[in-house]
Amino acid sequence: MGSWVTIGHPSVVEVMAQAGFDWLAVDMEHSVIDFHTAQTLIATIQAQSLVPLVRVSENHPKIIQRVMDAGASGVIVPMVNSKIEAEQAVKSVKYPPKGKRGVGLARAQGYGLKFGEYAAHVNDESVVIVQIEHIDAVDHLEEIVSTEGVDGVMVGPYDLSGSLGYPGQFDHPSVLAALSRVETVCRGRGTPRGFHVIQPEIHLLEERIQQGYTFLAFSLDTLFLGKACMREMKSLDRNLGAT
């Protein structure tokens, strides 16, 4: 169980960590967070004894390499629609012979002082989650989840529904059919299945748990903040109206 960090300040991580999440993902795809800020957030997440993941901006070796060198435990890679793209994500995270990641002496490697220690475990312990955000990914799902090094998938509901022509309509038959196929394929191969529950409403999270999702992102920092503010101000309005 984790959540999304889009506000580039370590205090946000420190506050969210107290909620009991297992991991937090720094979102570099839909935020203004840069590499320098991402490294600070990764360090803060680790300091709170949580697992730091990064949702990278795209499936690009240099981008993935830089966040891994910054100390991320793994990446969530958007818009992976084929086996070739899944293989590229894995190879960008892993060192040879499992991958093609170049060697750097940055924070993850103890700035050069702990490279041997890091290299000994990174290929086996790093996390690669591919996002299923397009109907093309659903159509090629068997190939994607069979890729060695892919640890799980995460459904991006808005983009997936949008690719079908029904953005945000999660109950549309076509969207439900796509989600059903994801469930069938992942269950058949024993692949951990993830979902980003956008709205901070616990019943929506519970629904996905009941549906068998085991890698869940629960909302994001801005929505938690915004919804709490709106809820309390509406409560105040009602209370003032009652008096």
Helix content: 40-55%
Low-confidence stretches: none
Radius of gyration: 19 Å
Alpha carbon gap, first and last residue: 41 Å
Helix and strand composition category: alpha/beta
Strand % is 15-25%
Topology-level CATH name: TIM Barrel
Write down the CATH class.
Alpha Beta
What is the CATH architecture term? Alpha-Beta Barrel
For the record, the count of structural domains works out to: 1
Quantity of strands, as a count: 8
Rough outline: globular
The chain-level mean pLDDT equals 96
The CATH homologous superfamily is named Phosphoenolpyruvate-binding domains
The neighbouring-strand order within the major sheet is 1-2-3-4-5-6-7-8
What brief labels describe this structure?
16% strand, alpha/beta, 8 strands, 243 residues, 8-stranded parallel barrel, 48% helix
List the helices and strands and how they pair.
Layout: E1 2-5, H1 10-17, E2 23-27, H2 35-47, E3 51-55, H3 61-69, E4 74-77, H4 83-93, H5 115-125, E5 127-132, H6 135-139, H7 141-145, E6 152-155, H8 157-163, H9 173-189, E7 193-197, H10 202-210, E8 215-220, H11 221-242
Parallel strand pairs: 1-2, 1-8, 2-3, 3-4, 4-5, 5-6, 6-7, 7-8
Helix pairs in contact: 1-2, 3-4
